[in-house]
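WARN no homologs supplied; continuing
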Amino acid sequence: MKKKVIAVITALLMLTAIFSGCASQSPKSSAGQTITIGTSPYPAWYVWYIAQDEGLFKKYGLNVTLKYFPVYSDSLQAFNTGKLDMLNIATCDTVAPYNQGVGFKIVMINDNSNGADGLVAKNQYKTIKDLKGKTVVTEYGTIEHFFLLKALESAGMTQDDVKYTNMTVNDSGTAMLAGKVDAACVWEPSLSMALGSKDNHLLYSSADTPGLIPDLLVASNKLIKNNPNNVQNLINVWYDALDFYNKNPDKAAADMAKQANVSTTEMKKIMAGSKLFSVKDNIEAITKKQNSYTYLPYTITETAKFLKSVKMVDTVPSNPLDMIDSTFIKAAQKKYGEQTAPDTKALNNG
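OK structure emitted
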């Protein structure tokens, strides 16, 4: 009898250990807290709407509000003034707030632009060199401005070789569509809009500059300190959403298209310009040190140098690794380490 009791207890302890191990992969969310995530009209960030529509936040017991900002710069202001817990953000826009002491960490790379940013020109301008002396527009001090300088550099030119005009990215796309300017640097969906005119064509895209434009998820230090389980579970939600995207590409595209207010077919085309990052991609980009844009700290430094050159920041961060908290993405490796990110180009062509 005593042996039977001991056997039952041992079995129960083993089951407890097994279920505890499973639970450790998805830590319990802090009850009652509403987490507000800022998003904007950039392709990769619509993945959050897959999570929302497919009930993935509820799966982890998370109470999440996705705050959509039609004007991207408004989302930066909201996060920097403490109105958001997390934000989807371009790398270049992390430098100034970091220098100013805004408390946050980069916790994940969403994607690299792989054609979602481009230099559009009127058809008569066949090469970048043909833009010499012509009116080229984009928003000053943004990643599109940085991208424009890199495009010009590829042709042995500088900003002084063109008539540069400062214009918001949204307005740049509209002006290009209306034929009011000679060329514009824009991101999606303004890129597709500008290319919607038969009078325009694509001269240069971010597919020509791998790693130049990574898009990130940042979390406030307050959220990381007080509710690290929520941060971890939100990372898990993102990768569950990518898994759903892989298995149900049409439904995933429909979820994103609803928020973007475009058709499912248009959404697939827009998403094709983003190289979504797997957990493995994240870890390599954060830890595999090299002097190239495939290494996030290098990209941050080079971007900061650009911002300093145009007097948008005073200093270049001495150690960009201090801006990154890789704890959560490394913890996700156990569960999602073998997962591949959706191939957005293939899904668009399929």
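The chain has a mean pLDDT of 91.
OK
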